[in-house]
Write a structure and sequence with these properties.
The complex is a heterodimer of chains A (322) and B (359). In chain A, 74% of the residues lie in helices and 0% in strands. With 322 residues, chain A is an all-alpha fold. The mean pLDDT of chain A is 86. Chain A has 13 helices and no strands. Chain B has 359 residues and is an alpha+beta fold. Chain B has two domains: 226 residues, P-loop containing nucleotide triphosphate hydrolases (Rossmann fold, 3-Layer(aba) Sandwich), CATH 3.40.50; 127 residues, OB fold (Dihydrolipoamide Acetyltransferase, E2P) (Beta Barrel), CATH 2.40.50.140. Chain B is 24% helix and 35% strand. In chain B, the strands form four sheets. Chain B has a six-stranded mixed sheet with strand order 6-7-8-3-9-10, with helices on both faces. In chain B, strands 13-12-11-14-20-21 form a six-stranded antiparallel sheet. Classes of the chains: A mainly alpha (322), B alpha+beta (359). The interface between A and B is medium-sized, with 21 and 27 residues.
Chain lengths: 322, 359
Amino acid sequence: MITTLARLIDAPFDALQRRFGAARMPYVFVAPNLLVFGIFVAAPMILNVWYAITGGTQFMPADRPYVGASNFAELLDCTNHFIPATCKQDRFWRAVANTSWFVAFQVIGLVAISLLTALILNRRMPWRGFFRAVFFYPVLLSPVVVALIWKWILQPDGVLNAIVVGSGGARVPFLLDPGWAFSWTIVVSIWAHMGFYTLILLAGLQAIPADLYEAAEMDGTPHVRVFWRITLPLLMPNMLVVLVLALIRAVQSFDEIFVLTGGGPGTATQYIVQYIYETAFANQTHILGLAATASMLVGGVLLVLTLLQLAASARARGEAGR
Amino acid sequence: MSSLALRGIVREFGHLRVIHGVDLDVAEGEFVVFVGPSGCGKSTLLRIIAGLDQPNGGDVLIDGIRVNDRRAAERGLAMVFQSYALYPHMTVRQNLAFGLENQRLAKAEIDRRIAEAARMLQIEHLLARKPGQLSGGQRQRVAIGRTVTREPGIFLFDEPLSNLDAELRVQMRVELSALHKRLKATMIYVTHDQTEAMTMADRIVVLRGGRVEQAGSPLHLYNHPANRFVAGFIGSPRMNFLEAVAQGGSTIRVDDMPPVPLPAAAETSDGEAVTLGVRPEHLGFVAEDGLPGTVDIVEHMGGESYVYVTLANGARLTLRNPGQTALHSGEPVRIGISGAAHLFSRAEGEPAIAARRPA
């Protein structure tokens, strides 16, 4: 049975090898993957650059007039970059400001909570396997499902308000007040993603040899000092990975927040990827040039973050002396 | 330095009892080695002494004071781990200082102790390096240095040499013995290697299955093993064992081979089934009588030779001959007892019936 199958597969590859020669076979094996990468990653990236340096509202690349850097000029045109209202593309800058605040709070909260959860789940405790699964579970959910669950909780007549009203309080506009809505996008985003980062940190914690802790115990090291002087330094490589991945994904936040708040109320929870999406596809006029330019700027930021991560983790490895 | 006493130590993991009521006294300044095969409980016992593990029963006393409820750090001990357990992100100096900082010692005192330990262990030039930049032997020294700076009442070693290569192991063995003499400290050392036990110990504690089989000086254990297990575990090459039948108290018969005279009278009854134990250096070649056999292999060490012989009944013997021998494979020989013989009762774990030196 297996031999027959093997022969079936053998025949076409034999033919390929006869045609291309053994030396070129590696390229034959890589080709299918390269094809997918080319169509879905490389080509869109190149197209994106073309859209960024061309203008108009035409969709077909060939129909678009070349405009040089004028999309960049338009997007970056501000009297004061810290006040979105003074910018020509104020929605872009509002999204940038929103995203910056969101990233700052979300990443700090996410890393802190993931670390705390990992530390707790790393202890010997009853039902440990169950809790590890429970904390990871939201990662498996579709972002839309995440958003719908939380919408069900947070809407004016939702679960949370039922509890608030039931305990004698007044109904809270969780998703209708800008401050509340912004805070809840952070909470929901942390809830949805923390399982993944907890897992990375948990793996890091478990890689720290137990006898280091025993040596520290013999030395009478207080728990707090063990954490700051042993656990945290040895967890640093994992912390860096978590930090940068969380940063990158926070900048890219879109789907669950878009379904949860739609960017509202007003533009209170409109983040950069939503701006790009709406500018390119959702508004009545599709301003592809500006959207492409904005995504190039975001891409640039992410590139810098990634390089920082690579440099930092290389340094951390060097310092650990391993 | 401190003394240590164990009283009826019992340790169970679930329903499995791994330490069965161990009693032991270690005097101040004594170098005691726990030795035994894997799973004999020697490391568990050490961890119980250290305070890293709690016994299910029994008491640990240091200087006569019960310390069961004291945390590891409050027992005045320091431990060298098998893996060294050096903090990989700290320099050697930081590794040495870490425990002292916990004790809130003055900076000058910490520096003094580090300098002293570094000088003693010849690691002064390594203080700025990290463990990853050190060889196995250097890491070992740093791990020992870390315990020395603590100035503990008792040093604990958990198989500290097992990750080193053979040559370095011999060297570190000598250095550890020297360190013990110099510090005059109480040391408890765990190993599965009987050579380490023989060469370093003031007293060896042989453990098996969570029980003390015998405790005593290396030569006492070598010359007077309490039972067959100790006799087989201590000494290299290991003791030869033959199933035999006592004939009166002065000769012994192995199968239907000619009876062999014992070097001294034993307290056996006529016809009693026993195990005859003779160390390789206490067997010799004889012209007549003796056990007939054939030489399998001869190993020439130069200063001595190991001769492996198969007896007529299929049993194998190892002989250690001083000097060089002209014997070769296939040669017929006759073997007699030239030194001490030990008789063990057949029942497993039963004490030796007699262990006599020739008059």
